[in-house]
Structures are given as C-alpha cells and as structure tokens.
Amino acid sequence: NEPTRMDPASATELREFLSNSNTRMERQEEQMMATGRAVQALVAQVSELTTQLQQLKVETASTQQPSMPDPPAPVDQTARTAEPRLPPPAFYSGEPQLCRSFLAKCSLYILLQPSSFPTEDSKVAFVITLLSGQAASWGTTVWEQKLPCCASFQSFSEELKKVFDHAASGREAARLLAELRQGNRTVTDYSIEFRTLAAECGWNSEVQWDMFLYGLSDFIKDEIYSLELPIGVDSLIDLAIRVDTRLQRRGQRTPQGLPATPQGHFSSVPGETVLSLPDPEPMQMGRSRLSQQEKQRRRERGLCLYCGAAGHIAAQCPNEHMDLSNVPCEYLDLKGVFSKSRAASLPPHRPYDCAIDLLPGTTPTKGKLYSLSTPEREAMEKYISDSLAAKIIHPSSSPAGAGFFFVKKKDGSLRPCIDYRGLNGITVKNTYPLPLMSSAFERLQGASFFTKLDLRNAYHLVRIREGDEWKTAFNTPRGHFEYLVLPFGLSNAPAVFQALVNDVLRDMVDQFIYVYLDDILIFSHSLQEHVQHVRRVLQRLLENGLYVKAEKCVFHAQSVPFLGYIVSAEGVRMDSDKVQAVVNWPTPDSRKALQRFLGFANFYRRFIRNFSQLAAPLTALTSTKTPFRWSSAADATFAKLKGCFVSAPILVAPDPSRQFVVEVDASEVGVGAVLSQRSSADGKMHPCVYFSHRLSPTERNYDIGNRELLAVRLALEEWCHWSEGLGVPFIIWTDHKNLEYIQSAKRLNSRQARWALFFGRFDFSISYRPGSKNIKPDALSRIFDNSECPSFPESIVPQKVFVSAVTWEIESKFRMASQGVTPPPGCPPGHLFVPECLRSEVIRWGHCSKVACHPGVNRTTFLVKQQFWWPSMAHDIRLFVLVCSVCAVSKSSNRPPLDSFSRCQFLRDP
Known about the structure:
Helices cover 41% and strands 10% of the residues. By secondary structure, the chain is α+β, with helices and mostly antiparallel strands. Helix 9 packs parallel to helix 11 and helix 28 crosses helix 30. It folds into seven domains: 50 residues; 82 residues; 80 residues, Non-ribosomal Peptide Synthetase Peptidyl Carrier Protein, Chain A (Orthogonal Bundle); 240 residues, HIV Type 1 Reverse Transcriptase, Chain A, domain 1 (Roll); 75 residues, Alpha-Beta Plaits (2-Layer Sandwich); 122 residues, 2-Layer Sandwich (Nucleotidyltransferase, domain 5); 74 residues, Endonuclease III, domain 1. A hairpin with a 2-residue loop joins strand 10 and strand 11. About 7% of the residues have low confidence. The chain is elongated, with a radius of gyration of 46 Å. Strands 15-14-13-16-17 form a five-stranded mixed β-sheet.
C-alpha cells in the first residue's frame, strides 16, 4: 500500500495554524506572568499598609492627654498611605500637540493625591513647577502678576489651553481625517491617529467606517475586500490590523513607494512580489551631498537617499526636512502645503483628469529612439528610477512611443523632454482659455502688498484619464514606459491645469488673486487683509492636493516680479533682469537672430513710445524678399532701441472707478492713442497703456476727419473692457475740432453712421485740444515708417491726361481792379469784397464758366462764396440764374405742372 500523501495547501494551512497557536500561547503566558507580578505587588502593598496602620494606632493611644484641650484634627495618615505612589507628570515646554495630555496627567495626579494639594494655590503652583521653556516663562509671569487665572486650577488650565493648545478640533479635525492616509505606516499607527481625530470631529460610526477603509493602502484594501467585511468600525480596524500583521509576518507586504523589484527588473511570475528589505541605515548627518558611489549603492538596495532606510523613497521620507525659513510664522501651521513628499506622490483621479481624445481614424505614431551621452544616461537612470518609485510612470506595452531626450537648463542641469509632436498633431484640442496677459494687472489698482506662489510639480498633480495612459508612452534605452500623471509637452496640458486651478480658486480669482498656470499672485490693500487672503489660498490649495514651492515664493512684499514684470503699488514696470538681457544682447548676425531679438523686445512694446517707428528699419531686415545686410543705420537703430528699454516709464494700473482720458491723433500713415488717468496723489495725468496702428492703403485714402474718427474707434475697440459700462463718462481729447460735433450731427455718411452705432455702447464726450498740446498721441500716429507713402496726394487719374493746373483768372482780375477798395464792416475774414462794378462778372464766372457748367441757384452761391462776398450776393445771384437764357432753354422747370384752372387764371392776369 502506498503511504497517504498530504495536500501541500493543507500542510501550509496547518503550519500557519500551529504558528498562530504558538503566538497566542506566548501572549497568554506573558499576560499570566504580568498578572502574577501585579498580584504580588498588591499583597506587598496590603501588608505594608497593615503594618503602618497598627503603628498609627499605638502612637495615637500613647499620645492621648485627657487634661489637655482637644488637639487639631490629625491628618488621616491612613488615607495618605492609601494614596498610590505615582511619578509626577513630565515637564511641558509648550508643544501644542502635548498640551491636553499634560493637563490630563496633572489633573489625574492631583485627583489621586488629594492630601498633597489641599488648596487651589497648591494645585496651580504644582502645575507651574512642571512647566519649562516658553511655557515656564508664561507661567512665571502670570503667577508673579497674580492674574485671575491663578485663582483656581480649572481657570489656570483653561488659560493654558488658550495659549498653547492649538490641536485640531471640530471642522479642522474633520478635514484632517478626510485627508488621512495610511501611507508607509503600519495599520496600527494609522488606526491610532484615525481614532484620535475621529474623537475630535464627532462623525458617526458609518462615516468613520467608510473613511477608515478609504484611507487604507491599496494592498491592505485588496486583502480586506476578499474577506467578509465587518459591520462596526472597531471590527474593521481589528480586521485591518490582523491582515497587516499577517502580511508582515509572511513578508508579502510590498513597501509603499517602491517597485516590486529593484532597478526596474519586473518578475515574470504573477504574484511574485516578495522583496527582502535590508536593515535600516542611519541618516547621514553633517554631509551636504552624497557621493555618487553612495547614491548608486542606495538605489541598488532600494534605500532612501535622505535617511538611508528602506520602505520609501527620498520624496516620501517620513524624516522629511522642509526649509521654511522663507515662510512667515503666520502660515507655519499649514506647512503641509509646502511638503515635497506629498507633491511627489501619485494624485487620485479627479474630474479634472486630462483626456487625450484622438481625431477619428488616427493612431499615435512611434517616435525616434535618441542616443544619449554618458551624463544623459545617468540622468535618465535617476529619472526613471525616481519616477517608478513615485508611481508616476510604469512599464508599458503600448503601440505608441514618443522620443525621449534631454535639454540643458540655465544652471547646467538636464531637463527630460518627450517629443509629443506626433501625438499633439492628432489630438482633439481643449479650448479652455488661458488668461489674457493684457488684462493681467487691471485689478491691481490700490494694492500695496503682494505675495507670489509657485506650485510644485504642477502638471504631475493631475492624472491622465483612466484608459488614456497608453497614449503617453515613450521610448528610452532602458525600456518602454507610460505616464499615469500629466507630462510636460502635451498640447492640452496648459488648458487642463488652468481649468483645475481656476475651479479650485474660483471665488477668489479677480477678487484678490490672479492665476496663470502654476503662478499665483495675491494682492491686497493692507497687511492684515493680505495675511487673511494668503491664508485662505494656502488652505484651499492644501485641501485640494496642490502644493507650493516655499523656496520660490515671495511673501508680503511691496514689489514682486511676476510673469516678466515688476508689480508694485506704483504700477507695473519692466523686469530689470529682462531689461539687462536686452541691453546686453549681441548684435544679430542673421535674420533668425534678429527675429529672436525683435520677438523678445516686442513683449515690452506697451512700455516703449514710438516702438514701431524705432523698430521699422530692423523689421524691414526680417523680410525674405531682400538679402540680410546689417548696415550702420541698422546698428544705430539697434542701439537706440536698446536704450529705450532703460528709460521706459512706469504704467499705472487702470482704476475703473475713476475717469479715463483717451488722447487720439491721426496722421497720413497711422493713428495713435494713450489711455491715461489723473493720479489722486499728485493730481497729474499718468499713462496706463499706449496704442498705435498702421493705416492700410484703403484707410490712408480717408479724409482727415474720418481718419481722426477711425483713431477714436480703434482706441475704443482696444480698450473696450475698460471703457464700456463705466459709471463715470470718459473724455476723448482730439486736435480735430469738427469731431466735437460728431455725437450731435444730423447728417452722417455711411461710414460715420456705422461707426456711430459702435460709439453708442460708450458714455464719453469729445473735447478739442490743440495739436501743440496733443504731443503723445501725435507721436504715436507718426511712428510708422512712411517710406511707402508719397509726400504729395496721389490721384486715381493717370498723369498723362493732365494738361495744366486750373486757376481762377477772375481772381487775378479782381485783385487788380479792387486795389484801394476798403471792405465794409461784416466782410468775413479770408474773403474778397466785390465792388458793384465787378459783381455781374463774378456771378457770370461762377455760373457760366466751364468750371461751373450752369449750376442752380444754390450751387452757384456755394461756388462764389468760396472766395467772394458782398452784402446782396444771394439776391443778385438768384436774379441772374432766373434770367439765364441757356438755363431756360436747356433745363426743364422743377415746378409742378399747372392744371387747367391755374392755366386760365394765368392767362387772365395782366
């Protein structure tokens, strides 16, 4: 007969059962031994108390004196002996998290030793003797000054809590409980913190059950879900602790933050995730940087590069040291928002996950595998290892694969880049708008304090939509990987992140903050208000899993660099570093280099008056129709333009509550405008922004009135977000007097009628200002290069059809005949008075000449009135035209035809 073979699974279960039984027996033995020791201690204490009691009885009997008066009541030595002997509480130096436990220990000690503290003063004095550090300084002060809080132990305890107890309570504890996660800790440690916060927030057991399960690590949750879930939160905690203990004993609990196997070598056998962890190593102190050999050794063994321990990476090190020297003390209780480890962890899925929708019928292409140098390979190894440990990437089998390479930063370090151009070309674009740079600073009027925040790992705080991760795959010499978070280089990344930040800070945007991607500017009128604003923003960011770089933030400043500008209470000016870059720019030696310079300088064109005129010779060199030749004139223009950056003015922030002044002017080649406001400090006009526009060939044909009106229309179009819907009408200054009547004119041409409908949206008044005072807009209107414009008016008629210029011969005759004639009073200035002897000839010239061609009464009067005048001119011209024989024969009457009655009546009249 063959021997019976045992099932391997049954053997394993039997070994586990025996192991658990041995463990339970060991625990029971320890408990029994502890109970025995406690019983022996109680027996000894009872024996000692009995002996002392007998001695007290003997002493009392021997000291009784009947003849003596009754002595004071003796202290009950029996009661004193019955009081347990306890060590006094530990010293307290003012730590907020230890305040409640210290007071609880003091209260229990006083309660168990009542004979030692017969009065309230003794209780308060006892607590003060246990204070140290800043707590001792405070306690000594209140005791020496005999403040009311020293009257009783209860009052002193409440005052001590007011000063030092800042522990989470109520809503704050609820918020911390909602954010609590197990992380790298054991379930036991996690449950202790969970129970502490749960006791403060007061949530019911059902909510606590859900929150505790949600905060467990995925590995523990997977094991719990495979079992029957308990009902109560206490039962759930006990189950989670047992599961965690069992997994730790079997060595199958994968450390959080580490891949299953080191150095990216993944097991081919499913479920084979056992990893032997080396012993923890002490953190290296006194060394600023690890050597390359030490770094490599720790990476190979899966150790933290900061503390040298296993089970986590440097970004998630529990011994994380945060440099908060730049952070004001008002925000140190929110230090979690500056955490590097939290920012490096994998964020949860949210409604703002980045979707990568492809155009119909397209698939991502496979990119090029780039060759890397030795330094680049080392940087790639570090980037891949850290990213795998942080779980922001994982190995991929995607058919897509973008190229992976490095570019150098300003400090010489290497930045990883992924060539997503192929993927971006077939991606459906997200059209969420980014903020306009032109309107970035219009809310800063009156602000005096500024804080700039820079978000940490901004894009990596957004997940890729589940199911789209394969599209982000990239190829490296080490392998094929894909992102779980939003990488740099995707076309939709800015729009997705801007939507996230705008929604998180929606009620604060344009009120006291301005957000542009990962840069946040907070502005306030007073310091007290500013502290509240900054605190609200930091609190909101922390609640939504967004983190800040403390080392790059600027707090409570009156002048702060932001998006290439310097923002202050005075206004907005150019960044001195950017100005210095322009001043030190080398002379361009190619068309491409010149385009780079003009593109960089064009960013600040709003600060430079006559920028287009100054840059026109350089702009002409960028044309591909002519060869690039750097001349002395171009070099002089280049130097002059760089000099203008040094002397650029400060532009004040527009204030919609005060009146605007728009100065406009037009020339033959362009129009210009300046938006200004009068300062309440010095009463002077200060520019807010400049505007200039080159006229098109069609617009150059407008008469001067229409060109001036065009300048008004273009300026209002440019600044409609400031000038439309204001409570105070704004003023437009122009050097063309006729524009004053444009709003009340009854007859307009078709172009002016169209523009009048546009002007109806605004509340303004036009005021005439002589050209000698309208200098700024006049200069802007002439900044454009007029080399293409002729110096004389152009005609649409060919020159070959002209014979000669037309002159008025009657004017020369008149001047000869009227010498010595004095004009009577009432003659308009600039007109010639016609004597009676020449009036018929002047009228004949104005009506019968080839220039006139026999017009009617009104037309003849208009033509003669251009140069001539006499008192009865209108009457004389009317009589002459009515008796003109040519007009009578050639022209039909414009009167209505006579009926039969009128004709008969006409014949009867003499």
